[in-house]
C-alpha cells in the first residue's frame, strides 16, 4: 500500500481461520495411554518411514550440534548443517508427518486485496483414517522434547561461555 507521500506501508494484517474437524466424533487422540501394550503399539504404526523422518532430522540436528566441535573445526560448516537439518525438519513436519501421523494441515492464503489468512485443519476421532495412538505419541513427544533439549543446551552454552553457539541454538527452538 502506498500513501500520498510515496511511502510504502508494509504493515499486513493476518487472519487465522480454524476449520473444524469433518466428522462428528470429538474424541481426541490421547498422548499417553497406559493400557496399550508393546505388541499392539508396534503394529499400530501405519507410517514407519514418516515416523522415522519425523525424529531423524530433529535428533540429527542435536547430534551435529553436540559433535561438530570434535568432528570439524569449522563453526560455519556446523551451523549450515544444523540449519539445513532443521529446515528439512520443518518441511517434513508441515507437509508430511503432521498430515499423516496426526491429521494436521495448515497453509497461508492471500486474498485479492492483499490480506493474509492462515488456514488450519485438523482431523480428530475415528474418521476414514484415524491417527494411531503410537504415531500420535511419537509426533507430539518429538515436538515437545526436542525444543526442551535445545533450551537445556542453550543454558549449558551460556554457562560455558561459548557465545558463538547461541546463534545455532536459537535456530533450534
From TrEMBL:
Gene encoding the protein: tvp23b
Cell location: Membrane
GO BP annotations, alphabetical order: protein secretion; vesicle-mediated transport
Keywords from the UniProt entry: Membrane, Transmembrane, Transmembrane helix
Transmembrane segments: 73-93, 138-161
Similarity annotation: Belongs to the TVP23 family.
Protein name as it appears in the record: Golgi apparatus membrane protein TVP23 homolog
Domain of life the protein comes from: Eukaryota
Keyword Cytoplasm tagged: no
InterPro entries (UniProt xref): TVP23-like
Amino acid at each position: 500500500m502506498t500513501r500520498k507521500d510515496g511511502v510504502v506501508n508494509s504493515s499486513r494484517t493476518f487472519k487465522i481461520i480454524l476449520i473444524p474437524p469433518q466428522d462428528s466424533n470429538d474424541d481426541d487422540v490421547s498422548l499417553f495411554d497406559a493400557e496399550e501394550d508393546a505388541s499392539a503399539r508396534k503394529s499400530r504404526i501405519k507410517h514407519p518411514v514418516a515416523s522415522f523422518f519425523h525424529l531423524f532430522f530433529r535428533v540429527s540436528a542435536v547430534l551435529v550440534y553436540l559433535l561438530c566441535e570434535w568432528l570439524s573445526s569449522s563453526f560455519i560448516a556446523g551451523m549450515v548443517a544444523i540449519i539445513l537439518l532443521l529446515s528439512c525438519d520443518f518441511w517434513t513436519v508441515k507437509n508430511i508427518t503432521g498430515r499423516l501421523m496426526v491429521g494436521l494441515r495448515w497453509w497461508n492464503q492471500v486474498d485479492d486485496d492483499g490480506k493474509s489468512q492462515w488456514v488450519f485443519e485438523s482431523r480428530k476421532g475415528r474418521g476414514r483414517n484415524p491417527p494411531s495412538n503410537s504415531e500420535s505419541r511419537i509426533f507430539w513427544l518429538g515436538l515437545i522434547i526436542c525444543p526442551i533439549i535445545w533450551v537445556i543446551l542453550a543454558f549449558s552454552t551460556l554457562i560455558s561461555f561459548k557465545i558463538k553457539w547461541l546463534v545455532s541454538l536459537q535456530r533450534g527452538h
